[in-house]
Each structure stands twice: as structure tokens, then as C-alpha cells.
Amino acid sequence: MPTSPRNATTLPLKDFIELRLRALDLVQPVRGDTTSTREIIQGRAFDALASQGQDLPGVLWSLGLRAPGATRADVEELFNHGALMRNWPFRGTLHVMATEDIRWVLDAMGPRSLKSWAPRREHLGLTDEIIEAAGNELLLALDSGQTLSRQEATDLWKRAGLPADPPQVYHLILTLCNQGLIAWGPIRGKEQLLVSVRHWLTHAPGADSRPQIIDDPLTFQQTVTRIAGRLVHGRGPMSVADITNFTKLPVTSVRASLEELGDEIHPVRLQGVDQEYWISTRRMEEHESEGAAKVRDALLLPGFDEFLLGFKDRSAHLSPGDSEKIVPGGNGMFKPTVVWRGKVVGTWSRKDLSKVSVVQIKLFDLSWKIPKAFVDGVRREAERYATFLGVPIEVQYV
Questions:
Q1: Percentage of residues of the chain with pLDDT beyond 70
Q2: Which stretch of DSSP H or E encloses residue 343?
């Protein structure tokens, strides 16, 4: 295991959860902080490295809920100006990433993903020649500055006489994204558009205001170390199993990366649990010097938020008996969650009526005598959500 000049710090559950909430940017903003809404959102995307994003409305809220007063337009603007993209860097799953991280992550992770999907491409008749031809046709349009929807890309391939059935289109896009050639960029209405990564990096509306991205060649192990360090900083405390579950990287490589990070990370243990976790030393020092951050008592999180998805062992946040209520039948589709002081206590859903949207709260423990502080906290989070959507919202308990 990694060594540290300090012994592992044993933490009570309350501190363990608070450290994760701090790392996940789910605490109250510091009074007097002048960071803009969009800077907070962009900072969160960078700290997370990759935020699970197969549900576009959900991940937009996941980013927006971390910035006071954020609207959906604030988050979309970061995509439209080239600061954020969606791609498939880990586990064959769409994630939102800061644009500057796309290429170096995919240099290491792309080939692994491409290899895992090879049998499916073969089944669909997508040969290397077809994929190359599809990429050439698409990049001819995207490198000229066009942005294309999935349907527009499909139509382009049909006109070129290339395979364009829905499963084939999905895997053509997935493959070209894994190759680092294209990504999902700006948002038009309710859909996201494809861009050429190389063109978008230098020609997106906000490209001139960002530092030039220089991708120094990294070895595979150097990439693993960078990934592990970013994940520990943006989510920790994390165990080796948490990191490997999120990335599907080899255990030996992850363990070696934690050795290489040295004093940048700090070992901790959860009281009563025989498991070592890792947190960034900076986060630990903040905790020790500043004391507990002001946690947002109540949270209304989307289904795929990293508060749950970022960890293999979720028992610190979710009672094992309640897992079925979050992911019915273990089907991989996570319901939006209601969190109270770091623990998942229910689910929520949104029902749109003619003049108002209703947030319906379904608590796990129907015998719980709901404290007024919980009701007030949920109301505040619902108001934050109303601001984000730009519609009036009511809260119902069902």
C-alpha cells in the first residue's frame, strides 16, 4: 500500500461524510467568495475529472446545483463556449469533462474502451475501413466549423452510402469519440451537437479566453497517477476499490499511482471499518485548520450524481436495505435522491403541470417524524431547482 509520512487518520462517520461533501462541492459557499457562478460550475467539472452524464438534463442539474443561483443556461453556456464536452472516457459511459482533459484521458482510456467494444462492432458489420470512411465524412463537415446532431450525422452517412442503422450510428459515434476525434459539445434546444475536438479546441466561441492546451505525452502509468490524484481530490475519501470501480483501471496500476502521489494524498480510515481510504492532503489540511464545512443539510440530487455513483461502497451514504429503492431491480437506472445531512433518505421526481412543476418527495421511512429543518431545507433546494429551471415549483410529500 502507499506510504505516508503520517499514519492514517481515523475519522468518525460524520467527519468522513463531511469530507466527501466538501470534495464533491456540496457544502455552503464561503461568505464573501466572489467566484462567479460559471467559474464555480467549471471548477466543479474540473475537480470531478468526469461527471457521469448519460442523462443530459440530470448532469446539467448536477453541475448547476453546486453553484448558488445557477440556471440551466449558465451550464449550457459552458458547453456552447467550449469549456465542457461529453465523451465516453470510462466504463463505456458518457461523462462530462473539462475540455482540457479530453485528449490526455482518451489517449490512455480510449484504446481500452475500443478493445472492449470490438465484438459489438464486428457484430454490426463495422469494419476498420467503414469506421475510417465514416470518420472522414464526418470530420470533413465538423472541421469546417459545422456542428451536427445525431440525426444530421446519420443523414450525412446515409448520403455517403455508409451503414446508418441506429445501433451502427451509436457505435460509429462512440468509436470516433473514443478515438478522440469528436465529442458532444454545444447544446441546441434539447439536444447536444457533435463537434470536431481539434477544431473546437481552437475555434469554439470561448477558445481565445482559455490558456492554450498543451498535451505532453504521458506514459500509461503517468496517466493513471494523474487520474487517481484528480479523483481523490474531487471525491475523496476514496478506496482503491472506489477508483478501480469508477475507471476499470488495473488494481496494480492504481496502487502504484497512490505510491507515486506520495505527500499529495493522505490515508484515512472510517471508524469501525477495516478499510483504508485516500484524500487529498490539501482537503485534509483544510478540514483540520478550518473545522467542519457548513454542509447543506438537504439536497435534491439527480439520479446519476457522483455522491453515489462515485463510489463502489455507498454504505456511508446509503443504508444497504435502501439500495433497491434507488435502483429497482438493479437495472442501472438510478432514481433522483433526497439527501439529509449526508444520508440518502428518499427519492424525488418532477411532475410538470400547466403552470407549475411539482417536486414529489418519497421518503423511505414513513414513520419518521419529519423535522421542520428538513422541510425548510428541502424547500430551499426546491427553490434552487426552480431558479435553475426558470419555472415555479411546489413540493409535495407522497
A1: 94
A2: strand 343-352
**DSSP track, 78-89:** HHHTTSEEEEEE
Q: What is the DSSP string of 94-109?
A: EEEEEGGGHHHHHHHH
- CA 198, CA 185: separation in Å to the nearest integer? 12
Q: Is 136 helix (H, G, I), strand (E, B) or coil?
A: helix
Per-residue pLDDT at 1 exceeds 80: no
Q: For residue 143, what are the contacts with CB-CB under 8 A and spacing of at least 6?
A: 196, 198, 199
Burial of residue 352 (CB within 10 Å: 0-12, 13-18, 19+) is exposed
Q: Which long-range contacts (CB under 8 A, 24 or more apart) does 376-379 make?
A: 377/296, 377/297, 377/298, 377/340, 378/298, 378/300, 378/338
Distance of CA 289 to the CA centre of its chain: 29
Q: Please give the span between the terminal C-alpha atoms of the chain, in angstroms, as a whole number.
A: 48
d(CA 89, CA 84): 14
Closest C-alpha to 201, from 143, 138, 131:
143
pLDDT at 294: 75
- pLDDT tens digits for range 203-244: 888 776 665 565 678 899 999 999 999 999 999 999 999 999
pLDDT tens sequence across 119-138: 999 999 999 999 999 999 99
Q: Is 234 helix (H, G, I), strand (E, B) or coil?
A: helix
